[in-house]
Amino acid sequence: TMTNTIGQRVRRIREIRGMKQFVVANAMGITQQAYSWFENKSGNIKINSLQKVCKELNVTMMFLVNADIPVTEENIKIFGSTSFNDVVLDYEKMKIKIAVYEELLIK
User: Fold this and answer.
1) How many CA atoms lie within 13 A of 6 on its CB side?
2) pTM of the predicted model, to two decimals?
3) Which of the two ends of the chain, N or C, has the fewest CB atoms closer than 10 A to its terminal CB?
4) 3-class SS of residue 81
5) pLDDT tens string 68-77
6) What does residue 66 show for φ and ψ, rounded to 5 degrees?
7) Which residues contact 82 (CB under 8 A, 6 or more apart)?
8) Are 76 and 19 in contact (CB under 8 A)?
9) Cα dist. 94→55, 63, 66, 101 in Å?
10) CA nearest to 62, candidates 25, 9, 19, 98
């Protein structure tokens, strides 16, 4: 699935974490309806709301907003709670390794 918006990425992370909307909403101190809007219709999200959702989903803000890194279970484990510089460096290293493996497989 394409996860191009912040809301789509939040939903995908929550689903991978196996969490229900109402659980995250309750932890954030908002209603389930407000949280649902956050995932589905929000366009202009306040920074403090993003910080709260990142805290409850246990991911960094930089992972959440980095559209270049797909939201997968593996990527959440790798990049979810590391610093942004580590995320960029690790992702670049991973891309290089994948290219090397692909080259080996083709030969």
Assistant:
1) 21
2) 0.66
3) C
4) coil
5) 888 999 888 8
6) -90, 95
7) 60, 90
8) no
9) 26, 15, 16, 10
10) 9
